[in-house]
Amino acid sequence: GDFLRGFKMFGSLFKPYVRYCLEEEGCMEYMRGLLRDNDLFRAYVTWAEKHPQCQRLKLSDMLAKPHQRLTKYPLLLKSVLRRTDEPRAKEAVVTMIDSAERFIHHVNACMRQRQGG
């Protein structure tokens, strides 16, 4: 019930991801410039990346995480589907997969449009 309703609203719940993904490359470029040109920023990032909460990830890895997370939802749901026997539950999971995949296609289309192709 609630789980399915949440996935039916996937597009509106994850709307901020569209802008994030569109801005991701610009953020990466900005970060690379700061790491190259700003000693204080470079020192801070080096210090922060050693913090246990960063789980040994680089700043660039952390910036890419939200985009990568999006692509994992359909994979997770397909795994759930393979282990689901009840027909109505299967139908609900298929609906969730479709909702997540449509949103990912929308994000990818926006990114292609922004890149001019």
TrEMBL record:
SMART domains per UniProt:
RhoGEF
GO terms under cellular component: axon; endocytic vesicle; plasma membrane
What are the TM regions of this chain, as residue ranges? none
**Which InterPro entries does this one have?**
DBL_dom_sf, DH_dom, PKHG5/7
Q: Which GO terms describe its molecular function?
A: guanyl-nucleotide exchange factor activity
Q: What GO terms describe the biological role, i.e. biological process, of this protein?
A: endothelial cell migration; Rho protein signal transduction
Domain DH stretches: 1-110
Q: Which PANTHER family match?
A: PLECKSTRIN HOMOLOGY DOMAIN-CONTAINING FAMILY G MEMBER 5, PLECKSTRIN HOMOLOGY DOMAIN-CONTAINING FAMILY G MEMBER 7
Q: What is this protein called?
A: Pleckstrin-like proteiny domain containing, family G member 5
Source organism per UniProt: Mustela putorius furo
